[in-house]
């Protein structure tokens, strides 16, 4: 008799079997059974990862509130970071698990969302108007929670729900039940957050939701979905956001693979894979990638502020991760961490919570996002006896992902994207003449697009340092200073960040120091040159456009609610003549350049900017003609604050 049978026999007898997890990973032909003891720790760095035999050592239940480790805002509900220390690991064949798990029906009563449809729709409207419409970010995820009461022993219900998920759900990255003694988590998550194996870091941005609850997916409807600009742009935006994370943890940034179609029982998603090499401790990788933009939004830090403003309850484990840490046969650290979505949390008393969220972008509608939350909850709710049964005709149905037209529609999504992130890059490729060996400081305005920009500048030959806008330090020791992007109103006279960055730019202009300003930095630079930014009638969030940049048509990506405007192509300023690249229709200033400075409203580093590297290669060399690196303390970014 296997350990699984002993464990299930104890459950059937009404005896707590102790902490355990039963996990099917990536639709494998077997499940992992982990048993051991549970320890609660405060920080991700405290997650135990003892040396020893190869294999999994710790399974951590990471709640959303751990985002505070990065200094980000959240509604703190006190959910603990629990760690199952693996004392025993057993592989169980799928057929054996299905035969052993309880088959009885799962019943739950009193099901209701904590936030009703009308109230959730009103929140969607406020976020679109007050946050996206005012330049606070490109997309945000707002959650709601369905609560109910499980009838009968909660652990029996969870194991029966696991069996139903194993049979009915497809496309899951992890299908699992975890019992710690203080809570049970059961679910089928479609999304890998981050994994590390043999030094290879992988992430899996998933976005765009095709709903087909209770029925097999319709091919024609799917093709219409794949061509829907809202769904396409939503995936591009989360791809950009996870590339930012990969830029932070992988030595040479991430490479994009895909896109693919992930088909599940009630819906389908579009997804990419990202890959990059890293030598970091896996707990650092986990911390630097908290949490996925698919469950928070972008830019990340401000998305957390927006979530805290519009969500009145904590998220507990929703949008956190399960993290399985261990070592491989060579002693290298390993990590496998799915996002905790499509997951139910059940208390020992039977209280059930299933949290879901919708990604709000500029094209979102309140009705559409309400429907999306219902569809996302359907798979788990069906397993818990709270939703419609899956269509029995769907079992064994051909995968639409294999359809030639579907594959062509997916492949076409890469045509407008930047090859810098899609192609294999040699880490030791020579830089651009005139830039190789020079130094650059990027001042981060709270948007980690700066990490991607750093990789592009390094590819051009620059040695790059990234510094937060509020961190002290000199700027005179660098050949080039880049004032980077970030959220917020560039016209604010009281915002500390805007005041600090204006002061920094003023000092750079007065000293004639080579300066590149990107997005928010560009808006502030334009304001100092006499072109105050204006709020756009329709935000340019995640929008790709072909624009004229100093006589050359360039296709680039915008994430902006504000823009400077001008009615002339040139401007005389206290810092000399400034050339403007502006829109012929509304006068929006897409780029500007002067004797020692340049600015771009778009993001050359974005995956939406196929011509981003060409723009940088054109703008930067004239700023650094034979200029040696300066030395000394001089002007300080902190002094600008």
Global geometry: elongated
Terminal Cα span: 68 Å
Q: Strand count, sense and closure of the main sheet?
A: 18 strands, antiparallel
Report the structural category.
Answer: alpha+beta
How much of the residues is beta strand, in percent?
25-35%
Average predicted local confidence, pLDDT: 89
Write the layout of secondary structure elements.
Elements (H helix, E strand, L loop, with lengths): L2 H10 L7 E6 L4 E12 L13 E8 L18 E13 H7 L7 E6 L3 H15 L7 E12 L3 H15 L5 E6 L4 E6 L2 E6 L2 E4 L2 E6 L7 H8 L2 H21 L5 E9 L3 E11 L4 H7 L8 E2 L1 H11 L10 E7 L5 E6 L4 E4 L4 E10 L5 H18 L20 H9 L6 H4 L16 E6 L4 H11 L3 E6 L11 E4 L12 H16 L3 E4 L1 H9 L4 E17 L2 E13 L5 E4 L2 E7 L6 E5 L3 E4 L11 H12 L13 H4 L1
Parallel strand pairs: 19-20, 19-21, 21-22, 22-28
Antiparallel strand pairs: 1-2, 1-7, 2-4, 3-4, 3-15, 5-6, 6-14, 6-18, 7-8, 8-17, 9-10, 9-16, 10-13, 11-13, 12-13, 15-16, 17-18, 23-24, 25-26, 26-27, 27-28
Helix pairs in contact: 3-9, 5-10, 6-12, 13-14
Label this structure with key terms:
641 residues, alpha+beta, 8-stranded mixed sheet, 16 helices
What do you see in this structure?
- The chain is α+β, with helices and mostly antiparallel strands and 641 residues long.
- It is built from 16 helices and 28 strands.
- The strands form 3 sheets. It has an 18-stranded antiparallel sheet that branches. Strands 20-19-21-22-28-27-26-25 form an 8-stranded mixed sheet, with helices on both faces.
- A hairpin with a 2-residue loop joins strand 23 (533-549) and strand 24.
- Helix 3 (117-131) crosses helix 9.
- It is elongated.
- It starts with a helix and ends with a helix.
């Amino acid at each position: 008799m296997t350990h699984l049978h002993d464990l299930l026999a104890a459950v059937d007898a009404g005896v707590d079997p102790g902490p355990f997890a039963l996990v099917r990973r990536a639709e494998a032909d077997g499940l992992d059974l982990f048993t051991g003891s549970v320890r609660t720790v405060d920080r991700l760095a405290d997650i135990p990862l003892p040396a020893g035999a190869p294999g999994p050592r710790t399974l951590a239940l990471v709640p959303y509130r751990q985002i505070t480790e990065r200094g980000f805002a959240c509604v703190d509900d006190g959910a603990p970071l629990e760690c199952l220390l693996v004392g025993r690991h057993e592989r169980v064949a799928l057929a054996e698990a299905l035969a052993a798990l309880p088959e009885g029906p799962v019943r739950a009563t009193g099901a209701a969302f904590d936030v009703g449809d009308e109230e959730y729709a009103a929140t969607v409207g406020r976020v679109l108007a007050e946050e996206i419409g005012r330049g606070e970010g490109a997309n945000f995820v707002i959650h709601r929670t369905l609560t109910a009461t499980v009838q009968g022993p909660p652990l029996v219900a969870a194991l029966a729900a696991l069996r139903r998920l194993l049979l009915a759900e497809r496309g899951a990255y992890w299908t699992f039940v975890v019992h710690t003694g203080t809570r049970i988590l059961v679910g089928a998550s479609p999304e890998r957050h981050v994994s590390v194996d043999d030094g290879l870091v992988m992430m899996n941005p998933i976005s765009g939701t095709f709903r087909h609850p209770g029925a097999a997916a319709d091919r024609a409807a799917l093709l219409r979905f794949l061509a829907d600009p809202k769904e396409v742009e939503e995936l591009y935006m989360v791809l950009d956001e996870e590339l930012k994370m990969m830029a932070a943890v992988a030595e040479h940034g991430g490479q994009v693979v895909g896109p693919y179609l992930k088909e599940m029982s009630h819906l389908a998603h579009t997804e990419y894979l990202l890959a990059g090499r890293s030598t970091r401790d896996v707990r650092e990788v986990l911390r630097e990638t908290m949490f996925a933009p698919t469950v928070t939004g972008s830019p990340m830090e401000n998305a957390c502020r927006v979530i805290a403003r519009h969500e009145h309850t904590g998220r507990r484990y929703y949008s956190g991760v399960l993290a399985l840490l261990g070592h491989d046969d060579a002693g290298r650290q390993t990590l496998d961490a799915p996002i905790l979505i499509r997951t139910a949390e059940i208390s020992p008393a039977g209280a059930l919570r299933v949290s879901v969220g919708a990604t709000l972008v500029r094209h979102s509608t309140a009705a559409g996002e309400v429907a999306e939350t219902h569809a996302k909850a359907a798979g788990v709710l069906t397993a818990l006896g709270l939703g419609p049964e899956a269509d029995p005709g769907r079992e064994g149905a051909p995968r639409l992902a294999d359809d030639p037209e579907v594959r062509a529609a997916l492949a076409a999504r890469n045509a407008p994207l930047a090859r810098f992130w899609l192609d294999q890059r040699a880490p030791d490729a020579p830089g651009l003449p005139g830039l190789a060996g020079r130094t650059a400081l990027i001042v981060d305005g709270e948007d980690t697009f700066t990490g991607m920009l750093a990789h592009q500048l390094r590819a051009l030959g620059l040695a790059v340092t990234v510094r937060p806008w509020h961190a002290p330090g000199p700027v005179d020791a660098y050949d080039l200073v880049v004032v980077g992007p970030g959220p917020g109103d560039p016209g604010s006279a009281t915002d500390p960040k805007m005041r600090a960055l204006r002061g920094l730019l003023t000092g750079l202009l007065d000293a004639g120091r080579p300066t590149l300003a990107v997005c928010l930095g560009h808006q502030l630079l334009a304001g100092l040159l006499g072109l105050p930014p204006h709020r756009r009638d329709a935000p340019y969030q995640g929008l790709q456009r072909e624009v004229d940049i100093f006589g050359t048509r360039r296709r680039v990506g915008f994430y902006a609610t504000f823009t400077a405007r001008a009615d002339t192509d040139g401007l005389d300023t206290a810092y000399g003549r400034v050339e403007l690249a502006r829109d012929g229709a509304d006068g929006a200033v897409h780029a500007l350049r002067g004797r020692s400075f340049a600015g771009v409203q778009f993001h050359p580093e974005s995956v939406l900017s196929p011509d981003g590297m060409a723009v940088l290669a054109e703008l930067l060399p004239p700023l650094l003609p034979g200029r040696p690196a300066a030395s000394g303390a001089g002007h300080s970014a902190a002094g600008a604050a």
